[in-house]
Amino acid sequence: MSSALRKIIKKGRQTEFIWRYGFNFNSWIEYKFAPSKPSQTESERVSADLEQNGVAVTTVDQLLGQTALFRKLDSRVKQILSERSAEIDQLRNGAGDSESIGKKTFNVELLGSKPEFSEAEIPAKFALQEAFLDIADRYFGMRVKLRYYNVWLTFATDAKARESQLWHFDREDNFILKAFVYLNDVSENTGPFTYAPGTHRKGKFRDVVPEYFSENGVQRSTDEQMRSVFPEDRWFRGTGPKGTIIFADTRGFHKGGMARDNDRLMFTCMYTSPASDSERLIKFDHDLSTRSLTDRQRSALEIN
Question: Taking a C-beta distance cutoff of 8 angstroms, is the pair 151, 266 a contact?
């Protein structure tokens, strides 16, 4: 493929009309003509907040109406922490290494950088819940794909902010929906997810662009640079108790993980359009069983 053609394709993907009705046409049609589902008040409220602000907060109790799967997730994560305790203690020693830009030494992906999918594994089940997929589909206006899920352990350090602890926005798609589910209480000093509401591509502040610097080839902005274009009293700070769920379109400006007093522990997953540039950060075995999955879940995993 010539460089000129690649530029044309890239520009087309960035134009919402072409992105939606060209690159994602089949997914849009599938969603548009899908049978309607019963109204769910909390999902509708979350979706409305996402549309307006690019970020929405709810809880396991409010959104899911039951906590059994969340309790299983919590138990599974505790088991992983116990199994990897020696390794985690060693990694903690290097958490404040500000010279290792690009490695996010302050954050550990407890399922590995590319989790191996299993229909029986609790984190996978949590990411494929109907409530999560419904909110993502509604936000995109099409059938989305699950590109990533993991459990993050963020170490408390006193190091200077770096990498994702600085303001930035993600670039893999026109919309990028992530869910963050807190597995411990998160205060101001536990690295809360922080967002500039309305800076997503649907928002009224989508043209806000702070000054920035390049950190290992990535555009980052400091708090001071963000304050100069977006007042701090309008920042969303995602503090909350264990069981808090935050949905955010990370095409909007955000930061997180600046834990000072206590470690942060949370489940996260990411949904994009089928045409996203994002790599699918999930491994699949050749003999994968999908008997317990619904057609919608298989579609989200790009499994026929």
Answer: yes
